[in-house]
Amino acid sequence: MNEKNYDVVVCGAGIAGVAAAVAAARQGAKTVIIEKQCLLGGLATSGLIYIYLPLCDGYGKQLTYGLAEEMLKRCVEYGPFDVPEQWGGPKGGYPGCPEAKKNRYACCFSPAGFTLTLDKMLEEAGVDLWLDTLISDVYKNDNRIVAVDVINSSGKIRINGKCFIDATGSAQVAKLAGAKVISEDNYITPWILEMASDPSFFHFTESLHIRALGKTNEEYAIKPPYDGKCITDFVRQTWKQMRNHYDKFTTEERKQNYPVHLPAMPQLRKIAYIDAVYNISENDYGKHFEHTIGTAGNWYHPDAGWKAPYEALIPKELDGLLAAGRCIGASGYAWEIFRVIPAAALTGEAAGIAAALCAENNVLPRKLPFAMLSNKLQLDLIKE
Predict the structure, then answer these.
(1) Closest CA to 224 of 212, 233, 214, 237
(2) Which helix H or strand E contains 255, and what residues bound it?
(3) How far is Cα of residue 356 from the mean position of the Cα atoms in its chain?
(4) Residue 157 pairs with which residues in a beta bridge?
(5) Which element (helix H / strand E) includes 67?
(6) pLDDT in tens for each of the 384 residues of the chain?
């Protein structure tokens, strides 16, 4: 079997994974990022969730900095949208996001365009990118992950690493390693790119829109465990929901109202999170942690923000791995806060820097002195 060796191995190239890989590589770590699709950005791009949610508290104070802000500023590079004027964008620009009208630091982006920008960021940082590559197995020495097996058109390859990051969105690496993961309910609420005569809430032009369907109630609920059959059923239910929408139109009306592009991945927002050293809960709103890596804004409504502790990135009973994005230790309402794009970038950056430091100093993530990480994090990233 062919083998490759890296300092940091990032699994999953969604927003969290790209942020982690860029951050690790900028620290000088030899870094690879592995993605099963041929698109970058995860749910943000493949899932057509094209809103970069707020980096602020809703009262004019910025909460999230670092790569999360860099990505927001760059996500509009290939598309019709702009960063809001009050947050440094052009005068008279078009953020495309209703949140921006509420003086929030948010905007929309073209999913395809953001993919191109994310690839540029990986290329600039010198990250080795493996697309169309599926992680098939995990290898441990005692309780420490030391390698993953992947399969692509070259066959089976073993990738050895000094530190690993699970940014799969489903805690897939942690699961393959036998670690405990936790799931919660989801809802069938598909987003679809369409041509339509009736403008939806999210639009690019007068006729090209992103339309959100479904509702967050029991009729549209889907419950764990999320096995292969469940995922297939979920996707087919989203297709049925879309058909129901277009079936309301006459044959002639469908010539003006039709789907242009479907999500390329299951739009499950909350699949699984690691059982972390510390799992953030809804009771942690307003709490200050000794090892805070940053603050995430509440995208539902204005508030002072949610602190993220470094311990939420570390599996309770597994070594050599950090989590980032949707699979960090966060439950209930806190999971809703930390599963979205800005928080994914925030936790991804922290995980990437931590992984690079672990690789350089040959220490486990749980043993990494937090002072080493906080000294490397951008100072603005942990502003109170």
Answers:
(1) 233
(2) none
(3) 20
(4) 2, 150
(5) helix 66-74
(6) 799 999 999 999 999 999 999 999 999 999 999 999 999 999 999 999 999 999 999 999 999 999 999 999 999 999 999 999 999 999 999 999 888 888 899 999 999 999 999 999 999 999 999 999 999 999 999 999 999 999 999 999 999 999 999 999 999 999 999 999 999 999 998 999 999 987 776 778 888 988 888 877 778 888 999 999 999 999 999 999 999 999 999 999 999 999 999 999 999 999 999 999 999 999 999 999 999 999 999 999 999 999 999 999 999 999 999 999 999 999 999 999 999 999 999 999 999 999 999 999 999 999 999 999 999 886 444 444
Long-range pairs for 330-335: beta carbons < 8 A, 24 or more residues apart: 330/273, 330/279, 330/280, 330/281, 331/182, 331/184, 331/273, 331/279, 331/280, 331/281, 331/282, 332/184, 332/281, 332/282, 333/282, 334/280, 334/281, 334/282, 334/284, 334/285, 334/306, 335/184, 335/270, 335/273
Is the Cβ–Cβ distance between 56 and 62 less than 8 Å? Answer: yes
pTM above 0.70, yes or no: yes
Residues, the chain, total? 384
**176 contacts: CB under 8 Å, gap ≥ 6:** 135, 137, 138, 148
Alpha carbons 162 and 134: distance in angstroms, whole number: 20
Contact 160, 4 (CB under 8 A): yes
Is 58 in contact with 301 (CB distance < 8 Å)? Answer: yes
Contact 158, 2 (CB under 8 A): yes
Residues 96, 99, 100, 106: what is their CA dihedral angle, to the nearest 10 degrees? Answer: -80
Q: What CA–CA distance (Å, rounded) separates 380 from 62? A: 10
Q: How far is residue 335's CA from residue 321's CA, in Å, rounded to a whole number?
A: 20
